[in-house]
Design goal:
Number of helices: 15
Mean pLDDT: 79
Shape: globular
Helix content: over 70%
Strand content: under 5%
CATH superfamily: MFS general substrate transporter like domains
Structural class: mainly alpha
Largest sheet: none
Low-confidence stretches: 397-401
CATH class: Mainly Alpha
Distance between the termini: 49 Å
CATH topology: Growth Hormone, Chain: A
CATH architecture: Up-down Bundle
Number of strands: 0
Length: about 400
Amino acid sequence: MPTLFLIVFVDLVGFGLVIPLLPFYAVRFGASPQQVTLLLAVYSLMQLFAAPLWGRLSDRVGRRPVLMISMAASVLAYLWIGIAPALWMLFAARGLAGACAGNIAAAQAYIADMTTPKERAKGMGLIGAAFGLGFIIGPALGGFLAGNDPATADVETPALVAAALSFVALCGVVLLLPESLPADIRGLGGRARSRLDAIADVLRRPVLSRLIQIFFLVILAFAGMESTFALWAIEQFGWGPGQVGYVFAYVGVLSAILQGGLIGRLTRRFGEERLLLCGLALIGGGLLAMLLAHRVAVLTLAVSALALGMGLTQPSLNSLISRRAGREEQGEVLGVSQSIGSLSRVLGPVAAGFFFAEFGRNAAFFWGAVLSAAALLLALKLVRGLDAAKLASAKPMEPGR
């Protein structure tokens, strides 16, 4: 697993390099706020259709081939972004990256192959920590390479550096990563199903369906915040790519500390269900605090709550979802989860861009807080139902029954 962690980390440094800079790149081509958020959403739109297929393929042929294809596509996509002379090429490159983005679902399935159910949350935390560390170094490095002036920012060089990092990650998969899925397990899930069949099967299972709904809502809220933060920071503080990148890096520091070092111990002590409730409450509180962030100190408190909230929520949800899936369908179920998350990352930026343009820069944060509250209510109902089921199963049967 350390090898997988390093590979995913290097790949996500490249991902983190580009994300905070895309709004500035798009604005340079005259993009509107709605077009900026659509540029961020197109990656997830393509991932929405592709993720379950990649997950299912990883169940049939193994995790390693899917990781190789995904990372090779990332190299091409970042190169295309770096040389793009027009806005439509940015959209096309982001679409290519999203269509081949099977790396996270395959990496999560790899973790599921290598861990017991009790250690699942800790293993999923490694992927979360790779995300966090990627967003420490990636945005900070991207901001440093681009500069602080939005008018003269170098947005091409970070994309080329991201391509180089993805190529290093690809080499790591080819040379260092063994296959995790035993040959006798591959293809046991039966005939290949369509994306819609796979999603429908998962949503027919009551607990899995509720977990997926919570995942959808929380990613919807967080994606809206991410996609409008750079535009908000320009208006609120007059910031450029450098400052925005440093904020994302700070979020990554907190997330990496929590998911890389603490999530396993916290899970053993409190359980995934209670960590999920705490994480959702922190996300909602952080989004509400953004409405009052007229000073950097208040902004720091808000983004700290958001980072800690996501650090608790994501590995807890991924672990709970994985534990409800059979060994032969880990890739497919986690691929469905990533597909639903991709739908959120499509709808979240689109809705946030609308709220930003029509109701002001804080409207998207308020909308996200409402979504987080809805997710928290669903989670409360789910946890109470699971606790009641445990009590019922533990209760001794009455005489004669």
